């Protein structure tokens, strides 16, 4: 706050601008105050920052780059027209004083006394950096024509080697000239990527909801996509083939259901008659027999209660295919035993007794 004393707004009553000129002259003080206490000796106190890492010779401690000191600045010489300044400061860890000065020829700082530099430098020639021209070299360029010619040839060779690098740098710089177009292109790419990511998230959420998954799905890789393209899952028969097979099966199916799968009443009736299993075997099994059909063979002379008349054995026996004899009914104006004219009377020898067929079938 000492520097602000001469810039205040208070002017004393005896202040005369023509006589004093300024408040600093009125107070007999310098504008820099305490920093200019050795200005008569050519020394100005400044705030100096350590340019690199050093080791203090007094306390042997390390002082890092960037540490600030109140240093005394003094001009000690010139490099051509560039002044050389020396800085003297006291170590903050001991009573040792460190002196450093500028080096315009090497664009660096040089330690004069009180410390040593921590070597972290590299060779500028090895890194192909631009080197400042030395004073002796400049004098030779001005006085020696042969040296100037050789130096010019070396400079041209260096330029030819650096042309590709310079051209690539110029192209890189020209690519960044139109900032608006670059920004627009970059924002367009960001919008497309954001839209793609949003679509992938929606597809993953739909797949998780459909499959009932609670685990996060990873992004699809190119290798997985190629492998999935090689695999094809399809049914052995197409839709048209399945429809054709179904129509063929329907057309080849029997119109009538099998006896075993018929209704309950028909199955019960066949079971009571004893023809349930035999009727089914009649289609593809052995031929039916009279006993299986409930037909009883009798001689012609025998009736249900006994023999009917003698001499009936020579007329033959009943055959399995012979139908039973129908009883004759009396007609009006005729005999009671006369058969109808449209039907031939059955032979008397063919007598089928159906009264005991059910009982014999059950016993069989």
In short:
The protein is of the alpha+beta class and 364 residues long.
Tags for this entry?
three-stranded antiparallel β-sheet; 364 residues; five-stranded antiparallel β-sheet; alpha+beta; 11 helices; elongated
Q: What shape does the CA trace take?
A: elongated
Uncertain spans: 275-284, 308-323, 325-343, 346-364
Count of β-strands:
8
Nearest-angstrom radius of gyration?
Answer: 66 Å
Number of helices: 11
| Amount of helix | 25-40%
Q: Which structural class should the secondary elements be placed in?
A: alpha+beta
Span between N and C termini?
139 Å
Percent strand? 5-15%
The string of secondary-structure elements, in order, is HHEEEEEEEEHHHHHHHHH
Major beta-sheet overview: 5 strands, antiparallel
Strand order in the sheet with the most strands: 1-4-5-6-7
Give the overall pLDDT as a whole number: 75
Q: Would you mind describing this structure in some detail?
A:
This protein has 364 residues and is of the alpha+beta class. Helices cover 37% and strands 13% of the residues. The chain has eleven helices and eight strands. The chain has helices at residues 17-20, 23-27, 135-143, 145-175, 179-211, 222-230, 239-252, 264-273, 276-284, 290-293, 357-363, and strands spanning 44-49, 54-56, 62-63, 68-79, 82-90, 97-103, 108-113, 115-117. The chain has a five-stranded antiparallel β-sheet with strand order 1-4-5-6-7, with no helix packed on it. The longest helix is centred in the middle third of the chain and has 33 residues, at 179-211. Residues 275-284, 308-323, 325-343 and 346-364 have low confidence and may be disordered.
């Amino acid at each position: 706050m000492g520097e602000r004393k001469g810039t205040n707004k208070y002017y004393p009553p005896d202040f005369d601008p023509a006589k004093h000129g300024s408040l600093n002259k009125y107070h007999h003080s310098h504008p820099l105050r305490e920093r200019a206490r050795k200005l008569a000796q050519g020394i100005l106190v400044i705030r100096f920052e350590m340019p690199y890492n050093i080791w203090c010779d007094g306390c042997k401690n390390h002082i890092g780059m960037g540490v600030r000191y109140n240093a005394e600045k003094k001009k000690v010489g010139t490099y051509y027209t560039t002044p050389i300044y020396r800085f003297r400061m006291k170590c903050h860890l001991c009573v040792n004083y460190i002196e450093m000065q500028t080096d315009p020829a090497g664009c660096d700082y040089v330690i004069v006394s009180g410390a040593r530099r921590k070597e972290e430098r590299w060779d500028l020639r090895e890194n192909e950096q631009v080197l400042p021209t030395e004073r002796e070299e400049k004098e030779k360029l001005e006085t020696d024509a042969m040296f100037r010619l050789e130096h010019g040839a070396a400079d041209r060779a260096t330029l030819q080697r650096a042309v590709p690098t310079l051209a690539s740098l110029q192209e890189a710089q020209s690519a960044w000239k139109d900032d608006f177009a670059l920004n627009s292109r970059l924002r367009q790419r960001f919008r497309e990527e954001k839209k793609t990511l949003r679509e992938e998230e929606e597809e993953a959420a739909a797949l998780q909801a459909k499959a009932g998954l609670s685990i996060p799905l990873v992004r699809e890789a190119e290798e997985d996509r190629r492998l999935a393209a090689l695999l094809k899952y399809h049914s052995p028969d197409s839709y048209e083939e399945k429809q054709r097979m179904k129509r063929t099966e329907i057309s080849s199916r029997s119109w009538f259901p099998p006896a075993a799968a018929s209704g309950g009443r028909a199955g019960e009736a066949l079971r009571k008659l004893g023809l349930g299993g035999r009727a089914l075997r009649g289609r593809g099994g052995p031929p039916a027999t009279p006993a299986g059909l409930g037909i009883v063979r009798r001689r012609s002379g025998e009736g249900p209660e006994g023999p009917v008349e003698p001499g009936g054995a020579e007329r033959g026996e009943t055959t399995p295919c012979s139908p039973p004899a129908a009883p004759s009914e009396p007609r009006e104006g005729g005999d009671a035993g006369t058969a109808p004219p449209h039907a031939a009377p059955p032979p008397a020898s063919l007598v089928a007794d159906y009264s005991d067929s059910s009982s014999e079938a059950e016993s069989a």
